[in-house]
Amino acid sequence: xxxxxxxxxxxQFGGVRAVDGLDLTLQDGELRCLIGPNGAGKSxxxxxxxGKTAPTGGExxxxxxxxxxxxxxxxxxxxxxxxxxxxxxxxxxxxIENLEIARSARPGVFSSLTVFRSRYPGRxxxxxxxxxxxxxxxxxAGNLSHGQMQWLxxxxxxxxxxxxxxxxxxxxxxxxxxxxxTGEIFASLRGSHTMIVVEHDMNxxxxxAGTVTVMDQGALLAEGSIQEVExxxxxxAAYLGDGGNGHA
Amino acid sequence: MNNRFRxxxxxxxxxxxxxxxxxxxxxxxxxxxxNTFARYLTxxxxxxxxxxxxxxxxxxxxxxxxxxxxxxxxMAMHLKLKASAHMPDGMPDFMGWTNVESLPxxxxxxxxxxxxxLAGFLVPVLLAAVIxxxxxxxxITGVFVAIITLAFLVAIQLVFIEEQRYTGxxxxxxxxxxxxxxxxxxxxxxxxxxxxxxxxxxxxxxxALGLVRSKVGLVLRAIKEDPARVRFFGYDVAxxxxxxxxxxxxxxxxxxxxxxxVLQFASPTYMGVPFSLAIVIWCAVGGRESLVxxxxxxxxxxxxxxxLSDLFVDGWTLFLGALFILVVLVMPxxxxxxxxxxxxxxxxxxxxxxxxxxxTLASAQSIVSEPTDKGGR
Lengths: 248, 377
Known about the structure:
The structure holds two protein chains of two kinds.
Chain A: E1 2-13, E2 16-27, E3 31-35, H1 42-50, E4 57-62, E5 65-66, H2 72-78, E6 80-83, H3 95-102, H4 109-112, H5 123-130, H6 146-160, E7 164-168, H7 176-189, E8 194-198, H8 202-208, E9 211-216, E10 219-224, H9 226-231, H10 233-241
Parallel strand pairs in A: 3-8, 3-9, 6-7, 7-8
Antiparallel strand pairs in A: 1-2, 1-4, 4-5, 9-10
Helix pairs in contact in A: 3-6, 5-6
Chain B: H1 2-26, H2 31-57, H3 64-83, H4 93-97, H5 113-137, H6 143-162, H7 164-167, E1 180-181, E2 184-185, H8 191-213, H9 215-225, H10 227-231, H11 237-263, H12 273-286, H13 291-311, H14 316-330, H15 334-376
Antiparallel strand pairs in B: 1-2
């Protein structure tokens, strides 16, 4: 069954149609890369799915349920997680406190009143070791390096354990090794989690492979494997028309 | 983190020792002095209530005095009814002066002490819940919260002044009977009363700390930094904010009830803008990040005020303003921030000294070991 379905999704900012009648279907456990020239509406699409932006047209179905009108926290509870382009961690909180916020299986006020201490062993320890932050548990997140912050946010998404994870340029500012490791983590999540990854780094896209969706001017341009997409003349024209072929 | 927790625990201990042992002893167990200090404790309690929402969740409530005043009036109504038992129809004297025919229906329930105490908590909470739900569902933040709460404060005070027939107007409610609690007639100039007030402060502190130290407190701190991000983890931010706002109102109402017991009258100035802004200053001076520090801020500033207003009758308000400017400019995190920085510097100094000692020790050992190396050759 399709886990996520976008039907004619559209949003307009002033006179600009940032997303213009986008149709997209994702299967359960799929890893989908979303690429396209600057201003194609990739990040806006993620914003629409997670509820940061309200669409002006079309609808979003998650597990067959229409979530178009739901506020963002209800979508998060339904199982949609989001990583932002610039690392958005809580800088005033320590690493372990950030992860405790992310562990949000029971987000209600009254269940939070009964939790006094982060249960460190178990899943949290696993995640922390995976992203190599075990030494920094009590460091204020604001004091971490840029790369570590990116890792922390990925770790937070792992703690949140959302079934659909939306990633906006997860490897921005990472070294080659860090990027490769991110690719490995994504590969391990495939199957159990559905992911949409917006990415500019084509090498990274090749590494994590999966199906690639190309967007241009707010609409779907092409869809297929990375090889198919790279050969597509329309895709080449879109990137060239945008003033450079550096990405594709 | 663990270190910081230890630091906080020492702070709690010192605070307890101070108000339970040092103060009564230093004041020579004098009833009048203890009553004055009990007044400072209740004001420290309101400052703590504000720290809960302002420092804990970033909700700057400029109308904190409204919930305090409601608590105060509710207690005063009960004590006034007790004092008016011999009057015709049991009506308070000021109602007679303004030609009220019979006791208004909303005064009736306050004959009962349990109802009064319950209302002293619930009415402020209800007010906070109504304002809070409307504000936080609308995602109002920052300075707009301050403006709205201030507007509510002014409106509520106006109602209490205008409705003189029911509230005593400008004069407030005076001529109160002493409270009777489980057969104990409260004498507000006694040592036992002082311990009653400090016990209430400690109980409120423990409850508030429970909230702050639970995951609710953590989520609130995250909300203070980035409410949008918190929503993407599935938390209903408006609910958390409303809870903090209501908890703060409950403690403020509690403090208001105690304040009437201390001073034996209720006045609309308890809901005034100057008083409400003063709470903000106490909280800022003590340090809004810590509940105990905010309470201490309230106690310290009011002690200073007590001393200074003896010396300069009107000049102390000038001093209070200057103090606030100084705090904002020089120590934005208040006395708490100042002490924390100091402590961090001291521990850092010791750590460095220890590291240096280890280095010299290591180099001394290498010097010693060198000749033996040569000797071995």
